[in-house]
Amino acid sequence: MDAGQPEFGKIVVFGTGLIGGSFALALKAAGAVEEVVGFGRTPSTLRVAQELGVIDRAGINPAHEIGDADIVLVATPVAQMPEIFARIAPYLGPNTIVTDGGSTKGDVVAAARAAFRGHIGKFVPAHPIAGAENSGPSAARRDLYQGKKVVVTPLPENNDERLDHVKRAWALCGADIYELTPEMHDRVFAAVSHLPHLLSFALVHDLAVRPDADLFFTFAASGFRDFTRIAASHPEMWRDICLANRAALLGELDSYRSQLDELREVLDQADGERLEDIFGIARQARREWGSS
Amino acid sequence: MDAGQPEFGKIVVFGTGLIGGSFALALKAAGAVEEVVGFGRTPSTLRVAQELGVIDRAGINPAHEIGDADIVLVATPVAQMPEIFARIAPYLGPNTIVTDGGSTKGDVVAAARAAFRGHIGKFVPAHPIAGAENSGPSAARRDLYQGKKVVVTPLPENNDERLDHVKRAWALCGADIYELTPEMHDRVFAAVSHLPHLLSFALVHDLAVRPDADLFFTFAASGFRDFTRIAASHPEMWRDICLANRAALLGELDSYRSQLDELREVLDQADGERLEDIFGIARQARREWGSS
Fold it and tell me: How far is B94 from chain A (nearest CA, A)?
């Protein structure tokens, strides 16, 4: 590669907020991209993105922008992706690679397969783990992905070259790259992120609907505060995530309900030994994780 | 009351650690007590308590110390209380008031009734909410209870004078005094403290026993960190609390399991409206609580 030549030519970003905008800024800061073109639903947002230098210009018509793009990043909420995939599918060029920034993968892959069909090999799914809320171009930062994890979830149809391109782009953003299958990705995030949110919402809701809810909240303390912090998360966003990852989340919820059934039995039997055993295994795992 | 005369004469404290030691130090700092006598299982701990000025002297024989005490605070782990109640029961004087610092009340009251029988009116149960771990006399601080909550859970047999004495002692420590029945106390703390601990232990245990546990922990992030912070709590202590408050905890656990059953149904039906409704109610309650 020529020293003066950026690694990527044109990058197209759908959604120029935290995820997409930070991707663009990071590649620009690395001198790795010639031009960034942004698409979005709101013209004023695209103007701000351009003023802030997040994108070089706003795209008007995908027919003119997709064919010669090296990477197309779809960084919108997952619910908007099927429509965007359908809009760009007719225009994929021989070297175009499409990737995404969605926090669930099974549903995104299904939408991509439906839109790209025989060209699905050009779609390399990914999940950058860096802030869940999309807060517009002014939230974008070129160092957002520095030391953060990006999970790439390759499809059997992805060849090595395309996979390497996407991994390379995220590496240039400073991220640590992991690989999981889309199915395993969804199971893991159902277990460590989506389920805890559901459980935390459930506890607060169970208290909030009681006639004497105030009494309970009066005596809630620091343990409750930590456990329920994520119950202050955005209801619509978490509705969408839970629905998007419904199958994996139901599996994890059922595993957890079985765990609670066992704990109920142990408690009912006043089986102190087993109770301490369960608590002890949990504590050790939590401490080892917390210190890592 | 004479200006130069402390409000209480002799205070006897069983367990001179964080809870009992701080009670003694606070009353001394308020000039409200003539003499503090400490009992404990470990002579060296009592020596340290005396060197630190937490107690004036170590008691040897309850027969010589209980009859003329104004307040006897039993601030040991709840599991030790039945034995202590039995040891002091024969020596209660006409003006002796016994109280405790246990974090569950139904079991403590039952133990007190068994030991004090016709004298149960002299026992005024209480729960100071200020740190769960008993860390010895060096952890005791005279300002521990400043602005903290103390829940007094009166018995029908307590007369106003005795109740007022206990409330007055805790008020002199700087605490805000609340009153609940023992049953309501146990329900409230099962819901806002014991159940969240159980749920947090359960989630980490459910992951920790999987063959591929490491993979899950690798992608756990800040939401998981908050939710599971209390799963690093002390297994023996929480075993004891869960067993001590078993009846109320089972009730709260069943209420929560019903809530999860509903959420499972809502998720299975992909009922986004209801899901958002539940999340929204929880979020609002959590935010109102968090800002109060």
Answer: 34
A·B CB contacts under 8 A:
261
Which residues of chain A make contact with B186, given a CB cutoff of 8 A?
none
Give the pLDDT confidence of B37-61 residue by residue, as tens digits: 999 999 999 999 999 999 999 999 9
Q: Provide the shortest C-alpha distance from residue A186 to chain B (in Å).
A: 11
B8-180, CATH topology level: Rossmann fold (3.40.50)
Sequence length of chain B is 292
Q: Is the CB of A232 less than 8 angstroms away from the CB of B200?
A: no
Stretch(es) of chain B classified as CATH 1.10.3660.10: 185-290
Listed residue (A284, A60, A7) closest to A170, CA to CA: A7
Residues of A in contact with B256 (CB under 8 A): 202-203, 206, 260
**Contacts B235 to A, Cβ<8 Å:** 276, 279-280, 283
Query: Are the CB atoms for A244 and A182 separated by under 8 Å?
Result: no
Yes or no: say if B90 and B65 are a contact pair by the CB < 8 Å rule.
no
pLDDT at position B133 over 80: no
Looking at the partner chain, which of A223, A238, A253 has a beta carbon nearest the beta carbon of B279? A238
User: Is residue B136 very low, low, confident or very high in pLDDT (cuts 50, 70, 90)?
Assistant: confident
Among candidates A192, A205, A219 on the partner chain, residue whose Cβ is nearest the Cβ of B216: A192
Q: What is the pLDDT of residue B1?
A: 47
pLDDT tens digits for range B193-212: 999 999 999 999 999 999 99
CA distances from B183 to A212, A214, A240, B79, B109 (A): 14, 17, 40, 19, 10
* A242 interaction partners in chain B (CB closer than 8 Å): 267, 275
> Does the CA dihedral B143-B182-B124-B89 come out positive or negative?
negative
Give, in order, the Cα–Cα distances in Å from A275 to each of A254, B96, B202: 21, 38, 10
Shortest CB distance from A289 goes to which of B220, B226, B240?
Answer: B220
ipTM of model: 0.91
Distance CA A230, CA A220 (A): 16
Question: Does CATH number 1.10.10.10 belong to domain A185-290?
Answer: no
As a whole number, the mean pLDDT across chain B is 95
% pLDDT > 90, chain A: 92
Residue A1: band (very low, low, confident or very high) from pLDDT cuts 50, 70, 90: very low
Output the average pLDDT for chain A: 95
Give the distance, in angstroms, between the CA of residue B27 and the centroid of all CA atoms in the same chain.
Answer: 19
**Ranges of CATH 3.40.50.720 domains, chain A:** 8-180
Task: Determine the pLDDT at residue B205.
Answer: 98
3-state secondary structure of A245: coil
Residue ranges in A138-194 assigned as alpha helix (H): 160-172, 182-189
Contacts of A224 in chain B (CB under 8 A): 192-193, 196
Name chain B contacts of A232, Cβ cutoff 8 Å: 283, 286-287, 290
* Best residue in A152, A286, A292 for a mutation probing chain B (most B CBs within 10 Å): A286
